[in-house]
Structures are given as C-alpha cells and as structure tokens.
C-alpha cells in the first residue's frame, strides 16, 4: 500500500460520516462509493452512474457523468432522479477531488417526506446540521393544527348560521321577523323582475294581515294571554301556508305573507277565508271564548315592475285598511298598484 | 387563551371527568366561550374553576393536563422530535417554547432553562410565577419518560422541576417512526 491509498481510505471514512447522502464517482463516471443513507434507498450498487440516476430536468440528453463533471467545474446545481424505486428526485452539487474523482453531495429538498416513508429513514440517517427533523416536525405539526382549525371553522360556520337564523326570527312565534321579511321580499321581488331570467319569472302575492280586537285581549286578559294568541296565530299561518311561503310577524299583531306563484283572486280569497276561520278558532280564554279575528290586504306582484318592494308593502297596508273600514274579518285584493 | 389550548383543556376535562363536570364548569364560567383570546395559561380560569369544583389543587389538575396532552398521539409524536432519548429530550426542553411558537405564533409559553447539576440530574427552570406551566410540564415529563422507556424521577419545587434519570433504558420505549404519522391518523389536539 502506498501513501496515497492510505489517505484515500481515511478520507472515505470521514466522508461516510460527514456526508451520509454522497455519491463518489471515478473519473469515468463509475460509482466507487455511496453514503450510508443513500445506500438505504439505492443499494450498494457499483457500475456507471447512469444505471442509478438520470437527470431530473426534462429534455437533457447529455450523459449524466458529463453533466456532473461540468456541474463540478462550473459550480452548477444537480437534479438527479433515481431510475429504480423509490424513484425520488434529489438535488445536490459536485466537486472534483485531487485524484480526478467526483464527489457529489445530495439532499432531499421537499421530497423529504416521501423519502422518509419510502426508505424508513430515522433521525440518525440525517447529518445533524440538516434541518430534516425540523421540516418533518413542522410538517406533522402543521397537519395536526390544520385539522383542528378546520373543525373550528366548521363549528364557527354552524354558529354563524344559527345566529343568522336567530337574527331573522321572531322569538315569540318562530315566524320571520321584520328583517327576515325585508330580505325575503327583496329576494322575491328580484326573482319576479330579474331581467336576466325573463323566462322563469316568479310572480307572488303579498299579504298583509292585522288582528281585529287584539288590543282588547291584551288590555283585559294581560300580555301573557296576548302572547299566547300571537303564538296560536303563528301556528295558523304556518298551517295554512306552504313550506316555501314566507310568514313574518313584523310588529305587535301585524303579519305579512309572501306567497310565490299565487296571482288568482279566487284562490287568494279562499286562502284568506281559511286564515280568518283559523284565527277566529283561536281560544283566548280557558272556557273557549273567542274574541279575535283578522283583516287582510293583498297585492299581486304583476304590475310592480319598475316599482319597489316598499311600495308593494304600502299598497298592501292600504288594502288592509280598506278591509278594516269595510267591517273587518275580510280580505281586499288590489289588482294593480295604487298610484 | 389560545383556542387550541382552550379546546385541549375542554377535551381533557371531558375525557377525564366526563360531560357532567365540563357542563358544570361551563355554567360556572358563565359566558365561557366568549372569554378574550389573549389570556395566558397562568390565568386560565377554566382549570381553576374545575379544580374548585373537584376540590383539588389547581396545580394537580395542570399536571394531569400535561400528562393527558403527552398521551395524545399527535402531541406525543411532536414531542418525540425533540430528542432521540429521554435525557436529550429534557436537555432540549429549552427549545420547546420556540417550537410551540413556530406552530402557534400567538401562544405565550414562558421561557424554559435547563441545567445539569450532575450526570443524570437535570433541573428544568421556569419563571417564578409560572407554576401552572411548571405543573403541566412535570406531568408531561412523567409520561414522556415512560414513552422513551427511561426511568425518570420527576419532582416539582415551586417553578423548578427536578429530573433524575437513574436508568435511561429501563424498559422498552414506545415506537417512534418518522413516517408513521403520514400513514396513520393521529388523534389531534
């Protein structure tokens, strides 16, 4: 053994420890050394480097050993892809040693997570200065936290929906409140007159209802009895309307219904009758005494093109007062807007 | 209070003492869910309320919480990244606030100093008023000693934790494979 060989053997041990991911190539590109971590993935093969790796960049036709030699000379980066499974892409750089051999040091980059899985790597497979363990730590931590956050988001979304419903609901009757009505009416108005959607217009009827003699119930029997009556009226309205109709209580004893698709006066008259009958059947006192009734005003959306939901509400209110003035317990239907 | 911590405490109370206690605690706290998010762990009222309800010292509950946290697979794994063996884990506890901060930027974990009095006799030191965090860490250390298979004797004095490691390979530790979490779904907090 001559002196040069001794030094090279000593070097190899140092390099093995220091660079667990290195590839050592003879001047002709033959593999003469592989670092211990890299060996876990590609084995202890010898032979031309082209049997183990190819250039990971597309369209490179040059022989790999020539690419490596040029990269060593010019300080360029190398991107190598394993030819056999796990077929990971590695990146690295190369230096030419004094004896003309090439020392390539490789690393994982973002492929680290795949590599850990594919090759069953452990803490001791990484050189201590490498940030591999920190990257894996962050990757796991990130996934755990994101998982938790997405369940938070889910909870928040549910809470938001519940709050929204609550904000638009009259707590006493469970019908919509004034805000809920405003939103529903502007949606109905939009659906009826949307120029984008001329083929599928949805006419609707707007019903304004006011209880007759409700104030007397409140005054003589107290607010509790009054509240009970309002609840029962809410039930009547829910039972006499369809699921896609909107029923709202917009104040004391005032109710509004939005009835999509209804424009026929006879149908609306029949419906009004059912509602008034239902409300008159509401028991106010324990002995079954009945005192309340209702007056109704109805307007039809046809004819309100270019006008506003507010005008519709105003007209429905006027119709309601015509019913009141005509002796209550009845409905008035306006065929067209009041000007 | 960071919401993740808040939720961990909630899960811990539910897991250990059941829904009834958690419900009682929530009730005693009134609008518990609306507490400001900035409180640190040292004035965490939920643990204190639960401790009062259970007639236990709060620090004991913090210690149980630490132990419970270290038993959650996702957290256990994250902790195991800190060292190959138990002694290294303890020595590198000074990195823990940094690691926690890296994951949850708004967590306010106090600084941790670790000194070695003699071989296998370590001292973990927290700021004086942080007895809650100290207790929590002590509970965590007890579980992690078992996790590494080490015999570790943990003692708490004020805001200091003594860690004696008479035998680093006392028993078979629990498995820690780097890739395991990516296949298995850990129970997260």
What does this entry look like structurally?
The complex is a heterodimer of chains A (339) and B (189). Chain A has 339 residues and is α+β, with helices and mostly antiparallel strands. Chain A has three domains: 3-130, Beta-Lactamase (2-Layer Sandwich), CATH 3.30.450.260; 137-167; 178-334, Reverse transcriptase/Diguanylate cyclase domain (Alpha-Beta Plaits, 2-Layer Sandwich), CATH 3.30.70. In chain A, 45% of the residues lie in helices and 20% in strands. Chain A has ten helices and twelve strands. Chain A has a seven-stranded antiparallel beta sheet with strand order 3-2-1-7-6-5-4. In chain A, helix 10 links the parallel strand 11 and strand 12. In chain A, helix 7 packs antiparallel against helix 8 and helix 8 (223-240) runs antiparallel to helix 9 (265-280). In chain A, 32% of the residues are buried. In chain B, 50% of the residues lie in helices and 14% in strands. A four-stranded antiparallel beta sheet of chain B has the order 1-2-4-3. In chain B, strand 1 and strand 2 form a beta hairpin. In chain B, helix 1 (3-28) packs across helix 2 and helix 2 (45-54) packs across helix 3 (58-71). The A-B interface holds A 113, 116-117, 120-124, 133, 136-138, 140-145, 147-148, 152 and B 3-4, 7, 74-75, 77-78, 81, 84, 99, 102-104, 177-179, 181-183, 186, 188-189.
Q: Roughly how many Å apart are the termini of chain A?
A: 115 Å
What are the segments of chain A in which pLDDT stays under 50 over at least 5 consecutive residues?
Answer: 1-7
Structural class of chain A: alpha+beta
Going by CATH, the architecture of chain B would be Alpha-Beta Complex
CATH class membership of the largest domain in chain A:
Alpha Beta
List the strand order in the largest sheet of chain B: 1-2-4-3
The total strand number of chain B stands at 4
> What's the number of helices of chain B?
8
Identify the CATH class of chain B.
Answer: Alpha Beta
Work out the helicity level of chain A.
40-55%
Poorly predicted residue ranges of chain B: 31-43, 184-189
H and E string of chain A: HEEHEEHEEEHHHEHHEEHEHE
